[in-house]
Amino acid sequence: MPSSRLPSGLCALVGFFCQHAVAQPVTGFYKGKTIEIIVGFPPGAYNDVYSRLLASYLGRYIPGNPSIVTRNMPGAGSFVAVNHIQGTAPRDGTTIGLASPTIPLDEVLGTDGVRFRTRELGWIGRMNSNINVLTTWRTSGVKTIEQAREREVTLSGTGVGSTSYIYPIVMNKVIGTKFKLILGYKGSNEGMLAMERGESEGHSTSWTTFFGTHPGWYADGSVNMLTQFALSRKPVLKNVPTAMEFAETEEQKSILRAMLLATEIGYAFFTSPNVPADRLATLREAFQRVVADPEFLNEAARANAEIDFKNGESLQQQVVNLGDTEPAMVAKIKSALTP
Prior knowledge:
Number of helices: 15
Strand content: 15-25%
Mean pLDDT: 90
Shape: globular
Structural class: alpha/beta
Number of strands: 11
CATH topology of the largest domain: D-Maltodextrin-Binding Protein, domain 2
CATH architecture of the largest domain: 3-Layer(aba) Sandwich
Distance between the termini: 73 Å
Radius of gyration: 22 Å
CATH class of the largest domain: Alpha Beta
């Protein structure tokens, strides 16, 4: 009976051509292509600023010099964008995303609307950390966290997956504040405008967005800065207590620490699952070269966009570690997130 096996030399030849038909070199792949950066938020805030800055420089550092475009895909605290990148976007290194830094935690907690696995995404790099601040308007009778423990305070917010929702809700359960969220605003700009108009008493957003859009509000007393959601005080906010400083027990500290790890993820970019390793490595290297480019840094400074780089490998490991959170701690965090 004739053998069905191919001669070894022919097998090697077939393997060579099959391998090279599939594994197209990075230079050849990206030439003439367009990379789309999908922003999970509306235009105007600093998620948009960082994305458009990246779009202006990334192509010059990728072999083949592809075109880079940005597209805003807001909705559900950026879940709409992440679900799209996970489920339907091309998995070839031509799609990059920027979303809420809490998405790894949302996945761990099983938040409604999550249809993504953050450890499967290819994390590329971080532009900046994402320290959030919680403010009330100057006319509010609540000017401190202590006062927010005594009476209800309305805050404008976006969606349940956003930090504008998550951090205040956790403060309610862990610290005993009485924040009431009014959701449905399309972004932080609308949320701050609502505070200014009196539709809400306050708003929680990133420091980058707050200072970049209203640089005088903190200095001139337009707002009361109640707390910063960070593991340690930001130098420019040295007189503003962190949320961690209100924790009174080790359990409270552990819950808040797990929540505030999102500040370390910050304005981080990622690509689709299963992108070939050489293309992911290329995107990471190009990103790192962008954030070291003097012209880029000058343009970022003009936009009041601070740069605090973290590489993709570190982000990937951080996401994996968060995904491995012990079930007992997950239960405690879930309890803290229940309004």
